Each structure stands twice: as C-alpha cells, then as structure tokens.
Write a sequence for this structure.
DNA sequence: GCTTGCCTTCGAGTAGTCCTAAGGTGGTAA
DNA sequence: TTACCACCTTAGGACTACTCGAAGGCAAGC
C-alpha cells in the first residue's frame, strides 16, 4: 500500500506540515516521489513515522530522534546506545504521566468547586470578595 | 512567608526565566518588589503560579491562562465560563494521559526488544540486515 | 576595594509548528 | 477548450513559549 501525505497526516493525527518537516530533516529516509514529485509513503514509512510521533510526543527533541534513527541505520553494534535511549525515554514518559495525573487532581478540584458554586449559590449567596483568596479551595501544598 | 524568584523556581521545578515570563505577561498580578526592585513572592503568588504551571503543563496556551486569570479577578459571574474551561482542560488532560500510555507501550516494546538482543545475540548471531525491517518487532498497526 | 552571588532589564536566539504565496498537475464538466 | 477543483510542491515568514546573554545594580564577606 502507498499513501499521499494527506492520508498519512490523517492516519497519524498530525499535520502535513510536520510530516514535511520530518522528511526535510532526514527522519523519513525511505519516502519516495512519484512522477509529479509528490511524496509517496509506504507502510515502512508509516512505521518510521509512527515511532517519530511517539518519541516526539513523549518529549524527545528532533535532534535526538535524528541521532536515534542514524543509530538504527548504522547497525547492530549501536544497540546498547539505543537501549539506553529507550530506557531514558521510558522513564521520562512515566514521569510525565505521573505529573499529568497530579495536575489532573488539581483540575478536578477546580471542576468540582465550580460545579458546587453553580449548584448551591446561584448568585444569591454571600460572596466575600473576588481577590484570589476566594479561590483557595485547593490551597497549594507541597514538599516538607 | 516570602520567597525569592530562585526559591520559587526550585519549589515549582521551573526556570526563573519562565517565572519572569509569566510575571511580565501579567499572570502574577500580586507579586511585590523589595527596596532593590527584586521580586518578592508570597504564598498567594505560589498558589497562582502553581495553577499556571498546572494549566501550562497540561497544554493550555498562555493566552487562555491570561483569560482565565482575568475571569477569576472579574468575579463570581464568570464562574460558568471558568467551569467550562476547567472541564475542557480536564478532558484534554485525560486524552493526553491516554496518548502517553499508548506511546509508553511502544517504547516498552523497544526496551524489551533491545534487552533481548543484548542478552541473546551478543554480536554472535545471524543479523539479516540493518534496513528498518530489522526493527519490525513492534509493527505499527492501527485503526481498521 | 574586590569578589561573589543574587537580582534586574532588554533584546536576541531557538525549536517545532503553522501558514501563506506562487506555482504545477490531474480530473471532471460545461 | 477552458474553467475549476483538489491536491501536491517549494521557499520563506510568523508564531509560541520559552531560553539565554549582556550589562549593570546591590549586599555580604574577605
């Protein structure tokens, strides 16, 4: 199967701009062109791109991805470095998920608070002020 | 309690550059200055900043955060809009956590694969090629 | 008095994405 | 044949949210 840039963009849920950017920066080395110079993507390219999207969205900079892809093409002797890179990315992603889950708790409190305000004091209750203290239903509390 | 910009940066695990950026862009409206023009952060400022960091790290653009903070200062009649904003952010964050968990699976497969390669064929096994097909232990497979 | 270390402002640099402009190609249809 | 649509191309600029460097102020310690 082969695909146009637009089909690939839809499949991967990213923009055509990003795909061109990755291609122009050497991250999709197997993409071919048709007679009209249009990019033609094969399944192999989709796999590469899927990995690129995965690494980008877990926060790996383009430069590191380029390095990783170069290692893949270099051969089996680069496996130790690739292993370390993926382990680092794994740890990084776990951290990020953890951070997001903590942030989610803060947001949940806000949602609950506003839901309560909307149900209980429908503009008829005493509201002391609108300085930020009025928002302190989830007072920031951290380490120590 | 009051804090220097550096103490706040450490507490929030962000750079002093970012804090100045948020302050310069009106997102920390209660930060005071000492006799030497240095920023002085109180606990109230930490709460605001904590929320800013939370919203930023869950992907809300600075412009939206500015709008949200303006709504907070505007008073109780903006609660419905704030409620909608926080619900949207909640949904967005759940999506992002989900995406990250899927990406993590891909990365886990890579880690496992490389671990296997390192244990079993310690450079003495038959390696067919180093074209990307050699990497296809987690072939990209998606919708349909 | 000099160094160290923190703070300040201002302006420039960066990554990655997004968008516009200007143009080419292929298909359909009046 | 001409018009139009929908897609593709490139080059280059705009944008966001930082990130950093330069140049300088102030206070403490030797």
């Amino acid at each position: 199967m082969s695909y146009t840039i637009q089909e690939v963009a839809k499949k991967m849920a990213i923009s055509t701009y990003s795909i061109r950017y990755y291609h122009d920066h050497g991250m999709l080395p197997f993409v071919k062109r048709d007679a009209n110079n249009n990019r033609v993507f094969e399944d192999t390219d989709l796999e590469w791109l899927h990995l690129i999207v995965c690494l980008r969205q877990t926060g790996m900079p383009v430069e590191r991805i380029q390095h990783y892809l170069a290692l893949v093409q270099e051969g089996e002797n680069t496996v130790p470095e690739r292993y370390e890179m993926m382990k680092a990315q794994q740890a990084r992603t776990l951290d990020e998920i953890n951070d997001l889950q903590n942030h989610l708790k803060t947001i949940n409190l806000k949602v609950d608070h506003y839901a309560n305000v909307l149900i209980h004091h429908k503009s008829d209750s005493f509201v002391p002020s609108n300085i930020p203290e009025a928002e302190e239903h989830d007072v920031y509390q951290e380490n120590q």
